[in-house]
TrEMBL record:
<feature type="domain" description="6-phosphogluconate dehydrogenase NADP-binding">
    <location>
        <begin position="2"/>
        <end position="25"/>
    </location>
</feature>
<dbReference type="InterPro" id="IPR006115">
    <property type="entry name" value="6PGDH_NADP-bd"/>
</dbReference>
<dbReference type="GO" id="GO:0016054">
    <property type="term" value="P:organic acid catabolic process"/>
</dbReference>
<dbReference type="Pfam" id="PF03446">
    <property type="entry name" value="NAD_binding_2"/>
</dbReference>
<dbReference type="InterPro" id="IPR002204">
    <property type="entry name" value="3-OH-isobutyrate_DH-rel_CS"/>
</dbReference>
<dbReference type="GO" id="GO:0050661">
    <property type="term" value="F:NADP binding"/>
</dbReference>
<protein>
    <recommendedName>
        <fullName>6-phosphogluconate dehydrogenase NADP-binding domain-containing protein</fullName>
    </recommendedName>
</protein>
<dbReference type="GO" id="GO:0016491">
    <property type="term" value="F:oxidoreductase activity"/>
</dbReference>
<dbReference type="InterPro" id="IPR036291">
    <property type="entry name" value="NAD(P)-bd_dom_sf"/>
</dbReference>
């Protein structure tokens, strides 16, 4: 997963955060 986030970079960060929030809730 870490490699994926690094690969996405700044553009993927907001999407990753949204997915994380959705997953927690």
């Amino acid at each position: 997963m870490k490699l994926g986030f690094i690969g996405l970079g700044i553009m993927g960060t907001p999407m990753a955060i949204n997915l994380a929030r959705a997953g927690h809730q």
